[in-house]
Sequence to fold (282 residues):
Amino acid sequence: MRKFVSFFSLSLFMLAFVIGSAAGEALGSISGDDCKNYSWGSKESVAELREFKLPASGRVSVDAGKNGGISVKGGDVGEVQLRACVTASGDSAAEAQGVLSSIRVNTSGTISAEGPADGKGWAVSFSLIVPRNTDLELKAKNGGIAISGVESNVEFETVNGGVALSNMGGNVRGRTTNGGVSVKLAGQMWRGNGLDVLTTNGGVSLKLPATYAANIETGTVNGGFRSDIPELNVTTEDVKGDWSRGSRAKQINTAINGGGPVIRVKTTNGGIKISSAEDTKY
Fold:
C-alpha cells in the first residue's frame, strides 16, 4: 500500500499543479483521460470518473481525505459541477474493482469520500466548477490544491502538496507544509481583502503584471530570491536570520504602483521567484 499511496499522491500533486498552471480553460475539469488506471509490480489499479451536478448554495466545502487532490475553477455557472476521480488498487484487477465499488462519494454537506479502512489502497481527487462568488473551504493531506477564477472567501490547507492559485479575488487564506506555491495575479489590483498564503518547505513563484497595485509581502529564511521587477527585489538586508545556523532571511514588504490590498506569499525553506505576467482578464 505504501507504494500505491506515494505514487498516487505524486500523481495528484502533478494533476493539481498542471491544472492550476493552465491559463484557465482546463482548470477545474478532470477528464476521462486524466482519470486513468495504473499498474506496477504485483499491484493492479482501476479508476472511475464520477460526475455530479449540485445546487449552488454560496459555499462549498471539500475534504479530500488522506490521499486526494482538489482543483476548483470559478465561472459564470448557476450550479456546482463536480467530477471525482476514484482510484483503487489490489493484488488483482478483480480485487481492485471490489475496492473501487465500495468507495462512496458524499455530496451532502462537505464533499468527501468513504472507503475501506483495512489497508486497501484507494484515493479520490475532486475537480469542481463553481459560481465565481462561491465561498470555499478546502482540505487535503497528501494532494495538491489548485484554484482559479474565484472571487470570494477562501480557506484551504494541505500537508503534502503544491498550491496553484490564479486570477482570484476576495479574502483568500491558506497554507501547505510540504509543497511549492504558485500564484498568478491578473488585472490592475486585487479585488477584495487580500491574499495570505504560506508554505514551510517549498519554493514560491509569484507572477503579476508590471502595473499591478498592491502591498506585497514575501520572503524566505532559507532560500534564494530573484525578481525581474525592480521594486520587488532584495537590495538591503534589513531582516537577517541567525548566522550561527547558516541562514539569512530575505524579506520584501513594500507598496508598488500606489499600493493596495496585501498580497502575502511566504516560505521558510525555499526560494522566491517574482516575475511579470501578461495582464490577463478574469
Q: What stands out?
A: DSSP finds two helices and 21 strands in the chain. Residues 21 and 164 are 7 Å apart (CA to CA). The helical segments are 2-21, 93-102.
